[in-house]
Amino acid sequence: MTHDTGQISVCHAIDEIDRAEWSAVTEAAGAPVFYDYTFLRAYERAPLQATQEFFYLTFGDPAVAVLPAYLQSSDDPLGILSVLGLPGKGPGDLILMTHVAHCYDTGLPARPGQLTQRLVEQACTVLAELSRQAGAKWFAFLNVDGSSPVAATLAEAGLTRVPMNTRYNKSISGFSSAEDFIAAIPSQRTRAVLRRSPRLADRAGLRYRSPDPATGVPDSVEVCQRTTARHGTAAYYPDEFREFVVRAAELISVTEIWRDGQLGLASISLRDKTRFHLWAGGIDYALMTGVDSAFPLMLLPAVEEATATGRAVLEGGRGNPVTKLRFRLTPVELMAFIGTP
């Protein structure tokens, strides 16, 4: 059955949206956690990047597709927009984008059968008009899986396709434990590293904790902030990060590793119905000196929780390609699709 997408609504606050209607679309679309109403509300209340305006688009009545968009500076906290070669870009120039820098899986959530060329072109028309009204030089879909159906329709709509970066994930639908994950890795040496990692951690006096994210997990937030600052992207986890964690607590799982009464490693993960996202992390490099490898210490608890709760995909985020490929996560090439108003 084909629904009419002609009626398009644009709201400026998440509370103006019918939560049940929005959630029905994202659930039917199998959209990742970044489109969850709770995530979007948390981001609006505690934005992790300065945002001039928020937009929430719904297509059809009742909605058959939804889309958030954000008016932000093109000087983003990760510097990922700098690789796009935006023509005529100057400091502080505005861009209307979907989704935000903290999302690595962008699409256009639509009910099955509704992701049509007409829908995508309608979305681009609305984004272009909103860009004009807001004084943005560009509108863009960022971090789109280059092999996805929405990527093909965005290219067909005439948007400029530009390579961005790579994210990594792994299908774990056939696994019932972390041991199944390990056993599926072809390299005997890599399997041995993963199996040895918990034993070495125990001998080194490392202890795991799983604090309630509703507390704001200040220790985890702080170590994430220190780590990203060390890598030159201090603004990526701003002061609002702790409040965001509290507001999005129902979507979050936290793993901490302590040594000698100090936090050495933290992983703040996101969960949706089918995916477990290794989303944010931090490490105290001095405290963890001598530890064989930090990534398995975050990876194995994530796999254990993901398999125990029936998630089908482990999302490993962007960056750190050598390590993620070593542990047999699959690369997903991400693209930006850019238009001008």
Could you outline the blueprint of secondary structure elements for this entry?
Blueprint: E1 8-11, H1 19-29, H2 37-45, E2 51-59, E3 65-73, E4 94-98, H3 117-134, E5 138-145, H4 149-156, E6 160-171, H5 178-183, H6 188-203, E7 206-209, H7 218-230, H8 241-247, E8 252-259, E9 262-271, E10 275-283, H9 294-308, E11 313-318, H10 321-326, E12 330-339
What does this structure look like?
By secondary structure, the chain is of the alpha+beta class. The protein is globular. The protein has 2 domains: 8-166 and 334-339, Aminopeptidase, CATH 3.40.630; 173-311, Gcn5-related N-acetyltransferase (GNAT) (Aminopeptidase, 3-Layer(aba) Sandwich). The chain contains 10 helices and 12 strands. Helices cover 32% and strands 28% of the residues. It has a 12-stranded mixed sheet, with helices on both faces.
Keywords:
single chain, about 350 residues, Aminopeptidase, 2 domains, 12-stranded mixed sheet, globular
Please mark out the parts with pLDDT under 50 across 5 or more consecutive residues, or reply none.
none
Element order: H for helix, E for strand: EHHEEEHEHEHHEHHEEEHEHE
Strand order of the largest sheet: 1-2-3-4-5-12-6-11-10-9-8-7
Output mean pLDDT.
94
Structural class: alpha+beta
Largest sheet: 12 strands, mixed
The radius of gyration is: 20 Å
- What count of domains describes the coordinates? 2
Strand content: 25-35%
Highest CATH level, the class of the largest domain = Alpha Beta
Measured as a percent range, the helix fraction is: 25-40%
CATH topology of the largest domain: Aminopeptidase
State the shape.
globular
End-to-end separation in angstroms reads 33 Å
Helix count equals: 10
Q: Tell me the total number of β-strands.
A: 12
CATH superfamily of the largest domain: Gcn5-related N-acetyltransferase (GNAT)
The CATH architecture category of the largest domain equals: 3-Layer(aba) Sandwich
